[in-house]
Amino acid sequence: NTPIRLQKNYFISTITLATRAAIAGGLSAEQAFRLSDIYITKAESLSDLQAIQTLYLQSLTDLTIQVNATLQAQRQLTIRDTNKMIQNCMDYVQKHTHSPLTVQGIADALGYHRSYLSAAFSKATGILLNNYIYHCKLEESCHLLRYTTKKIAEISDILCFSNQSHFVQRFKKLYGMTPAEYRRR
């Protein structure tokens, strides 16, 4: 019934709610409860209203900083994992330009859900995964046009385009000329 006891009770109830919020925000329960116990024990030892209020602000600030640090660490892990996934995806496409490639096939080969991989790839690179597949196949076609005497129809088949017309159309769209014109230049 004293102002100090009321302030301590207020502090305890608030730190309890803040601890729950910190856990919901990503802080481990063990770490959140440990901090809560430290602050409550410290508050119980205080006998000055101003000291309790100072501890109150410090405890909320510390919990906020801890949650922020946890979220930052999780974001870094997510970015690192996403970058690794995207790099693995790009490597897979580049190594398999002579195979029929689909977003579903790549997702299956790498162990991801098709829509998740597709969305993550687009977000990270700014291009659709399907367009990246065509881009890699067309880069390989340039190499084949330059350094081999294979016919355009053969190159289309080697790179698993549905037909020669589709290959020529995609090539012209990307490079502004047909494969035959590219070879002549």
What this model shows, in words?
- This protein has 185 residues and is an all-alpha fold.
- It has nine helices and no strands.
- The chain has helices spanning 3-24, 29-45, 49-95, 103-110, 114-125, 129-147, 152-158, 164-175, 179-184.
- α2 runs antiparallel to α3.
- The longest helix is centred in the middle third of the chain and has 47 residues, at 49-95.
- 19% of the residues are buried.
- The mean pLDDT is 91.
N-to-C CA distance: 93 Å
CA-based shape: rod-shaped
H and E string: HHHHHHHHH
Main pleated sheet? none
Query: Would you tell me the overall average pLDDT?
Result: 91
State the oligomer: single chain
Radius of gyration: 30 Å
Portion in helices: over 70%
Tally the helices: what do you get? 9
Total strand segments:
0
Please give the structural blueprint:
Elements: H1 3-24, H2 29-45, H3 49-95, H4 103-110, H5 114-125, H6 129-147, H7 152-158, H8 164-175, H9 179-184
Helix pairs in contact: 1-2, 1-3, 2-3, 3-5
What descriptors fit this protein?
185 residues; mainly alpha; 9 helices; single chain
Task: Please outline what is shown here.
This protein is mainly alpha-helical.
